[in-house]
Design a protein that fits this description.
Layout lengths: L1 H45 L7 H11 L3 E2 L8 E9 L5 E2 L2 E2 L4 H8 L10 E12 L2 E12 L15 E9 L7 H9 L3 E4 L7 E9 L4 H7 L16 H4 L33 H7 L2 E7 L4 E5 L5 E14 L9 E7 L2 E2 L2 E2 L10 E6 L9 E4 L4 E3 L2 H11 L10 E4 L2 E4 L8
Parallel strand pairs: 7-9, 13-17
Antiparallel strand pairs: 1-2, 2-5, 3-4, 5-6, 6-7, 8-9, 10-12, 10-16, 11-12, 12-13, 14-15, 16-18, 19-20
Amino acid sequence: MRRVRRIVGWSLLTLFLIFLAICTTGEIRQRILVHRAAALLSDIHSLRLHQSDWNDAQRFIATWGRWGHYDGACTSEDCLYVVTLHDLSIPVNNNVAEWPSRMTYFLSAFRLLPRQWGGGLRLMQATFLVQNGAIVRSGVSIDMSQSPFAKGAQPVCCGAELIISARSQASLGMPESWQEEQRSRHPDYTTWRPGGCTFCLMGRVTYADSIPVEEAVKLSDFQLSCATRWSSCLTLEELDPAAHSWHLYEAPWGDPPEKTTSQQMPVGCALPLYALGRDADRIVSVEALEDGVSLGKDAEGVEHESSRVRVIAGLKGASPWPIDSTQRVLSSGSPYYDKVRKPAHLVKTQRYFLMLGNEEAASQDHISLENCGVVGEDTASDREVRRGMAMDDQLKGFEPTVSLEGFARHRSQPWDR
C-alpha cells in the first residue's frame, strides 16, 4: 500500500512538473513574441511616408527578413513588403493567417499567469509599400486573444479576439452619408467595424498619409502589455487608447447608441474643403444654367432639387462628360445625426465643384449628389480644393488593404476605406 502511495505521489509530482514546464515554455514564448512585436511596432512607426526612401526600406528588410514576405519582385519601383509575427496557435502560410488546429491552440494556451491562459498576443503584421524609390504606404495590425479566465471576459469558447488594424491611404474616398458625421469630427481618418463577428471585437482605422507622423503613431499605439500583465485586456480601448474616441462598441460588445448632437446642423457638407479635394476620385467644375427646381420629398422625407449645368473643366481624374456639354444634376438632402438637411441649391450663372466617386457612370444623363457632392466655387474654395488634391498621390495599382488573413493588394471595397 505504501508503495502504491509512493508511485501515485511521484506520478502526480511528475505530471505537475510537466505541466509547469509547459506553462513556463508558453510564458517564455509569449514574452519573446511580445518583445519582437514591440521592436516591429517601433520600426514601422519610424518610417516617414514620402520621405523614407529605398535605402530605409532595405534596412527594414534586412532587419526583419526572417519574418518578411513579398509577392513577385521587390524593387525600388514597386514592392509591398509584409512582416508577420505570430504565436504557435496561428499557422501562417506565405504571410496568410490560417485557423489554428485544436492541438496547436492547446499547446499555446497554458502560461504561468492563470488569468492569461488561452490569451495573449496571437499575431502582428506590419507592411509598407515602395513606389518610385519612396515608401508611400504603411500599416500595422494586431490580434490579441482575450483569456476566457480573465475577470469580466466574454463567454466565448477559447477566448475572444481583439483585432485592430491601422493603415495609410492618400484618399479616404468620398464619404457615405453615415460616414460624414464621423469624419466631420476627424476628417483625416475613418474608422469601421464589422457587424457579424461573434468571436471578436474588431476595429479598422484608415488615415490619410498626409497627417502628422505623431497623430498617425497614436492611432496604432498598441498596448502590448495586454499580453504580459496579470489579466488580459477585455476591450479595444485597453489595447489601443485611440479607440476611446471611435465609439465602435458599447459596454463592450453591444452596438453603440444612436448618436444625437446639439451642435448646429451644417447647411452644406460638414467636411473641410481640402478633405473633399483629397478624397474625391473625380472633380468637375460646372456652371449652373438655371436655378435649382424643387422636386419635393421622397417617401423617407428627403428633399430633392434638379438643375441643368454646363461642364467647364475636369480638375481631378477624367470628367465623365465632354467639356461644354449640358448635364442634369439632382441634388439630395442627406442626414446629419438625427436630422435631414436641405439639398444643395444651385443658382443660375454661379459655378460649382461636383465631387464624384468612381461609382457614377459616364453614360448617365444625370447624376445624383448629396450635400458633400456639390460645393460652391470661388477663389477661396478653389485654393482649398486644390490643396487637398495635392495630397492625393494617385498610387499606381491597387491600395494595400487588410483582412483577417493579412495585408494584400486588390480592388478595394467600401469597407476597406
